[in-house]
UniProtKB/TrEMBL annotation, chains A, B, C, D, E, F:
Lineage: Bacteria, Bacillati, Actinomycetota, Actinomycetes, Streptosporangiales
Domain Carboxymuconolactone decarboxylase-like, first and last residues per copy: 39-124
Pfam family, one: CMD
Domain of life from the UniProt record: Bacteria
Gene3D superfamilies cross-referenced by the UniProt entry: AhpD-like (1.20.1290.10)
Protein name (Swiss-Prot/TrEMBL): Carboxymuconolactone decarboxylase family protein
The organism of origin for this protein: Streptosporangium longisporum
Amino acid sequence: MRRDPVPERSERFLRGAARLSEMGGDIADIGEALADIAPDVAVYIGEFAFGDLYCRPGLSLRERQIATIAALTTLGDTGRQLRFHTGAALNTGVTPAEIVEVVVQMLAFAGSPRVFNAMLAVREALADRDLLPVSPGRPADGPDRS
Amino acid sequence: MRRDPVPERSERFLRGAARLSEMGGDIADIGEALADIAPDVAVYIGEFAFGDLYCRPGLSLRERQIATIAALTTLGDTGRQLRFHTGAALNTGVTPAEIVEVVVQMLAFAGSPRVFNAMLAVREALADRDLLPVSPGRPADGPDRS
Amino acid sequence: MRRDPVPERSERFLRGAARLSEMGGDIADIGEALADIAPDVAVYIGEFAFGDLYCRPGLSLRERQIATIAALTTLGDTGRQLRFHTGAALNTGVTPAEIVEVVVQMLAFAGSPRVFNAMLAVREALADRDLLPVSPGRPADGPDRS
Amino acid sequence: MRRDPVPERSERFLRGAARLSEMGGDIADIGEALADIAPDVAVYIGEFAFGDLYCRPGLSLRERQIATIAALTTLGDTGRQLRFHTGAALNTGVTPAEIVEVVVQMLAFAGSPRVFNAMLAVREALADRDLLPVSPGRPADGPDRS
Amino acid sequence: MRRDPVPERSERFLRGAARLSEMGGDIADIGEALADIAPDVAVYIGEFAFGDLYCRPGLSLRERQIATIAALTTLGDTGRQLRFHTGAALNTGVTPAEIVEVVVQMLAFAGSPRVFNAMLAVREALADRDLLPVSPGRPADGPDRS
Amino acid sequence: MRRDPVPERSERFLRGAARLSEMGGDIADIGEALADIAPDVAVYIGEFAFGDLYCRPGLSLRERQIATIAALTTLGDTGRQLRFHTGAALNTGVTPAEIVEVVVQMLAFAGSPRVFNAMLAVREALADRDLLPVSPGRPADGPDRS
């Protein structure tokens, strides 16, 4: 007998699933990945991360995704999460160039290994959506050309 | 003979110092803190972090500070940096409630110890500017009250 | 007008506050620390960390505290959290020597700087409760004495 | 001429190898993986991690594995280590559901990316032993269903 | 129209590219990997990491690579970077045994998971150059053989 | 009855204590700090970190301290350790300017918050020894002055 990958249906969960759907994700995918080991994790992510935190007022979804891309780049070992949140960022109005911009900024705070690895994960997510190449920033504000 | 805390004056450095000044900071403060050990670090921060990265187009300063607050919360051991960048966020149009909002969101990505410590650092910076208490988000979207 | 440091009263929150109380903590303390900046964080910690996670069956509170001491030692920059959770560990049946034992084991997984810093935080919490010195393990299984 | 993957045979090493064997591991496997580059690492792990630390009294092997799973989840970039220590946890009396429980608890301390990645590594180790699906915790204490 | 993977040519960039070349690397490889998403990252790495930092006097390239191997081992999630910098270390006069020695020393500071993962990455880079097996240190100073 | 802060006297421990002494440290200081909570930690540090790892051939003590300063800068939350190892670096032939140089290089790998915090810890240790100001690198290879 197959178990329901997302067994719980609190109001918070439903709110979170709707928010995630608005961001282009599907809570069922998270549930499916952990269905036979820890379905509760998908429920908690649905309830807490998306139903509680991502449903708070005070920041737009676009701004929340900017914060998330920065955090995941800094944390490291987050290729899977960056691929997902790149998609969510695109769905909430962040452009490919802006996602790249957030990761580039992390050169100052997290160092080049974290930035390089994050960029490769973002690149994969953009390639899947046929969004490469990303147009670079305007030259006048680009790297040093003294 | 006292050494100049900020000995270098490249175009990139001057551009970075101006950008930092616009964010309410003063490159001389960074230079002063490390003047007798590593003045070059202030120069590199002025040139690279503020002159190169923070002068890039493609994200507003407000958005860059949202990314920075998220990254510093996640990194940990960054109380000093969070106090500075809270001020810089305020000076680039991020409200106290929005700064708090970014830190709260990190409960999903970095866990509660990082969030608690970051919040105490942000709190200190806001207290210094007489900006407490911070008005909370609207109840209808706040924590679970089922 | 002073704000209520713990404004929310969901069933999950009350369950978490009771669990925390059983562990010797007081959710009001967390609320108080962040009352003028982010009272919601105390609510989320009450609801999610203590009401959801710490109320799950499947592990004793004693075992949960063993896991928590290990995690905080590994994470770093967690002196404040280790002081609190040392008290909570004592209240759930972990002895001082067992807390020390968990931290010592982290020499293999997190390295000596993390272990040294964690031990100093645990030491402070034990000193506050007049629980020093901690009796060492039996010599026969202690360090190399070849 | 092939080199011995585990060249050293101190009393501490033999004690550690025996302890590791009791946990279902084989020091020769670690030695083999690094035999042509750093056989000493296997020796140090045998001597120090397993011969010194894991042979200390004061915590059961079961409790030590609870601490280890928590630490590895928090540390990140530890898929290989989590796969090994999941097996060792099973061999020292931790059930699959209890291993999962430790990882789930880390949602509070290390955030969801670390938990998700750790769960996938644990899942692989359980799948290799034909131990999926893992029975969930009792509903009455599960996620919010208000 | 294909974009130039390394569009900028400042003096600092050229100096960095030359330094990198001296270390056995090629800035074009970094540029190529990110050419369609963030060519500026290769430019910044060329200018700042290699043109500014690696061109500073005061430490030999050999010593800089010792520092870098230590840092990457400690940081974690740096397999790609360790493979590259193992080659650069070899090209600046660090022997395979010395690279291994730096990683082994990290057992004290970063714990065995970081060391094990780093060693596997170093091993790959040495295998690609047909430099295995690495001769171990002299027995008299090796692991405990009391 | 007061306990001996360093109760164990294996050959490895004595070798490590001698090595530490050569580096200007005193194992009794570590033992004293943890005497009433975990004297074994000082023993393990004496035996394993200094008796095993730091007594290995293949790298000079000077080079080992370069690696250690890099690792501690990258790890974060290591002010106490950096103060100690700055002294040890000085005692093994690393100059103040070289210690600074290692920390500066970490701007590329660990980001500016880690570098800034590490530099402040190194600065304290140098100030205690009346070694400030540190002479900067030669201008010709310093920051950008185009």
